[in-house]
Amino acid sequence: MREALARAENSSLHPRVLARTGNNKQALALLVLALAWLIPLRAHAQDPSPIVRASHDAFEAKVLDQLAALEPDVRALWTEATAARDANELDRAADLYGAVLENHPQFDHALRRRCSIYAEQEFYSLAIPECRAAYELSKRRENVVTLAIVLSAPSALRDQNLARSLATSTLRDHDDDFVTTLSVCQVALNLQDLQLLGDCSAVLRKLDTNTWETQVFTALHHAMQGELRQAKAALELAHAAGLDDETYKTLSSSFEQAVSPEAYYGKRIGLFFSIWIAAALALVAAGYFLSRLTLSEAESALTNSQASARGSDSKLRKAYATILWLCCAYYYLSVPLVLLIIVALAGGLVIGMFYIGYFPIKLAIIVVVVAFGSVGAVLKSFFTRPNDSPPGELLDPSDAPQLRALLDEVAAKVGTRPVDRVYLSTGADIAVFERGGLLAKLRGKGERCLLLGVAVLDGLDTKAFEAILAHEYGHFSNEDTAGGNFALGVRRSIVHSAVGLAEVGAADWYNPAWLFLTGFHKVFVRISQGASRLQEVLADRWAAHCYGAASFERGLRHAIAAQLRFELHANATISEVLEARHGLRNLYTYTPAQIPDEIERIDELVEAHVNAEPSPNDSHPRPADRFRWAHALSKPNPHDEGPGRPCWELFVDREAIEERMTGVIRDDVAAQTAMVIPADAEQRVRRQRVLD
Q: Partner of 215 for a Cys bridge, out of 9, 238, 294, 408, CB 3.0 to 4.6 A?
């Protein structure tokens, strides 16, 4: 662009000029960076556009013709001076132009050229009189715009209003000249005049939009307005049109640096939050989609008699496992972000109080307490160790040797390792789980346990029991218990965090941590419960394959009935015992005076439960569907020919077990009500002394 500005005779201004233009506005800071390369153009080997080169050559030829008419020797001085200027030999060029003036003091071209050199050397006390003298000699456009450029230079500190007036009038009178318009744009940059820069860049685009000079000034105009996207687009066009790589990179970097910290980081924070939210929505969509496919996976058994019972063969199961792990990872990655938001909001509120000039101490204390309480509650949840205490009474193998043999037999039939321990509970539970560390479970070395509720054994035959055990062992075979620690850890963290927030009074809508926990919990439960449903369907296949659908259905119906019956019986019995204030040795054989009506119609309740539609958060499909799928999958099986012997025959002493479990129930009642129920029926209930 040097040749273009040479026409205006403002050869260049040194970058030191720019260092003294301090301005806090982002757009003006951008201009300073731009001027640092636009003005000292002699330092760049930038080729001008053809239109600029042609104008420059024509102008130089015209000047030489004028000198030739005056005196040939002066023409030689002029040519030598111009060569020195182009070689950046400024002192020599100024002396040679001075020699031209000694011969022809009224030659305004020489005055203008020496003015430009003085300005480039920052000798404004010498430059401005020279430019004014040239202007007085001739009001030609070159003299006008050169004077405007020098007066507008940041270091000149001269009449900028005159510079603006000269540039504006020149643009108005010569809007058909490309090079003159370039000079006006230079004045606009010096003055940081957004309006003038917009006008002159618009004229450049009208005259020739394909030059790199046009696109550079267009880019700078957009940048001054904070329109960096458009500025970058124009800069790309300039680069494609011939702008050199060094200048292109410098300007591109200046655009980035000119962005305010708020805009720069705000854009990236906004992008990060968009990705964060998009990831959450993607997980929700994936979970919903997989939940819909769960029923399709189960329904496939109706048309595929060869459907595998091995859950590890299910692509849907693998997809669920992947989504669950991603959900867990999303949770752990999101927690630091949520905590950062809490701290930032609390800090912002406190700082805002100082800014408004009113500092309510009580409110500030509440904000700080809530913020630190929330952070502490969430962090504490990560260091809370899971409760690995036994879920019930450990069964001595000598109390049920036949049970041990049956457990080993079912495990062999399913093709998995049998349980290591059996725990007895007071209710009607039948479930398997693993104890031990995550690595041990993943390597199949965890301690396998069976939780067996005493209440479920009454009326349960061994064939139905074996089918239920096959279902439970199916969870082991499908590795359902091995990979769940990550998900359980997330659930435990959510629960402990929520409890902690409630304790500090921060479990409310205004707390980002509470909003995140409640929202994530809803999503996670939906997805994990869908996975649980699929696990149950695949475990049902083991029961149907190994022991027949009829035995499985009979066992599951019995388990449902036992659960309903036990809750009704236990509530009625405890209420009666407490009211009558007498002891209770064996809850399981006790007959209350007032039997609940629901027990009389237990079959009706079971049927309603079997056919009831599960809630979205239910971890099991509808029992009626499970029975239908099992029968569709099952082949004729000897186990379906009739019930087996009573399960209580697997134990040595039923009464002793029931009495021990009744003791556990009595202890629970005492802990909850402070009412001690004695084992001896002749003794009376007494109130336990509670110490503060």
A: 238
